[in-house]
Each structure stands twice: as C-alpha cells, then as structure tokens.
Amino acid sequence: MTLACPECGSQRNDVKDSRHAERNGFAGPYIRRRRRCRNCHERFTTYEIGGARFEALEMLFQTLAPLRDLIDQWSSDIETAKATLTDEDETVENPRA
Description:
It contains 2 helices and 3 strands, in the order E-E-E-H-H. The protein has 97 residues and is α+β, with helices and mostly antiparallel strands. The chain has 2 domains: 10-49, no CATH class; 51-84. Strands 1-2-3 form a 3-stranded antiparallel sheet. The longest helix has 34 residues, at 51-84.
C-alpha cells in the first residue's frame, strides 16, 4: 500500500523507519512508519494497525453503518420539518413583555 504525501500528494515515498508503537494510549499491533517523499522530500509519519485489532474495528464500523444511515434520515426529516414552518409558527410571544 502506498500512501500519498500530505504536502504534495505524490505517492512516491520511502519508509525510513518502522517500529511497533503505542497510539492514543493503546498498546497493540500498531506500526509507526517514518516516511520521506521522493518528490518534495517532506517527512511524515503513518500509523498502521493489523491483525485482530483491524478486524475488530472493521466489524465495529459495519455494525455502526446502519445507525449512521438512520441518524442521517432523522436529520433530513428535521430539516424538512423546519423548512415547512411558517413565520407565524416560529414566532413566540413573550408573556412578560
């Protein structure tokens, strides 16, 4: 897998250093790679996960996908309902005035 340089977008880069790493407080099968772009010479870091942790994350995303669709539908319904309100419906009189 080739990753694009964040500076110039080139996919031509070299791995300069690889090591197992801790990411966001989680130790595990993370691999930290220091890369150098062949085009602009920018250095950047990538973190990769593998093995069982990747499969668990993939299952979690597949489980949450239907919930995201449901939330998107609710948001759309709310926006539609807001758009159909008239100016009189949105006006609230202040009883203390």
